[in-house]
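haha ok so turns out i had the wrong file open the whole time. this is the CORRECT one, sorry everyone. sequence first:
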Amino acid sequence: MNTYVIAVSIAIPIFMLLIGIEAFAAYRKGVKINRSADMISSLSSGIANTTRDGIKFGLVLISYTWLFDHISIISIEPLWLVVMIAFIAKDFAGYWIHRLNHRVNIFWNRHIIHHSSEEYNLSCALRQSISNNIRFGAVFLFPAALLGIPPYLFAIISPIHLFMQFWYHTRMIDKIGWLENILVTPSHHRVHHAINPEYIDKNYSQIFIIWDKLFGTFQPEEQSIPPIYGILRPANTWNPVIINFMHIWQLMKDSYRTKNIWDKFRIWLMPTGWRPEDMQQQFPLKENENPYSQKKYSPNNSSSKIGWVWLQFSFSGVLMFLIFYTMENFPFLIISVTVGVLFLHIMSYAFLLDNSRLAILMEILKFIFVCVLLFLLNQGGLLTSNVIQFIIIIFLIISMGINLYFSQIKLIQQPV
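then structure:
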């Protein structure tokens, strides 16, 4: 079992416990910070991202190992100093990557999912991208490579650095005194997630807030300006897979449609949200021009449908761990098809929350993928139990029937 799977197996129960504690604290204070559909969308995004990372799907343009091998000029001692420099270098690189993700059109697609929730809670911390398949972050670790910081340290520090960013995605912790001057706190990061004109594109730091103060992007949270969360072009879907690619799809359409040749090329590297003038006129997009009049996305879903989707979500978690614990023993083709089943499963119940008939299409495609998977398992002699195969097929038929039922009925209950 690889170290990533071990780390995930430890981290996920901790995250779930903290999310539960936050929800209980909010309940005791009479504050509503969670909506079921939003939580399911966030947690499903986390499952999709974790699975993608677990199977190591992506392209690294420049690896840190390559930089270390080619430009390292000194070797620092002792170990405690090396670890400290590595952590600071990681945080410095994180600031600039984060800032680029917000400020450049093509890079925004890598990060839009994380900001798409119109709530702010610990579950939205797990809204991580599956569309950042091309990695370039090692470029910002150039100083660390010069100083001879060994690559194995970043393999250890990177997941720790990421996990340390979880806790400050909450509204339940107010400002925390002198630590506000050193660390990124919930107050700082609430500003970062806000779409208020006073707050937008501020506080990119990940652990040490000093980077924002050094580079002019710091903004404290003002008591008189409560943060409003979301994105300026609302996603209007609970489907995390769709959200992951909605921005780049818009860029592709604008690039193809615009009559200006220069605009076809420069749109990708222009500031986030920029569109050719003819596209603004011919194909205007719905934008949240006044965040203070925000109407949150809230399709009408019955409590019984929400309960069914929570059950479906739990199956996606089981399937993720099944992939992790079998991927070293099964052929890559079988693992790939299984990942396809997982993503179709997530899209199915997410479309169901959107009240979209595409949920049925996803169920049909999932059924086909599972049949292909069972065929491959049988061909490889990896699944010989007819009883297990029968149970899987029956479950899929029941799932499709229930999804069809919820897609057809007229909803009369209030959103959950």
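The mean pLDDT is 92.
again sry for the mixup
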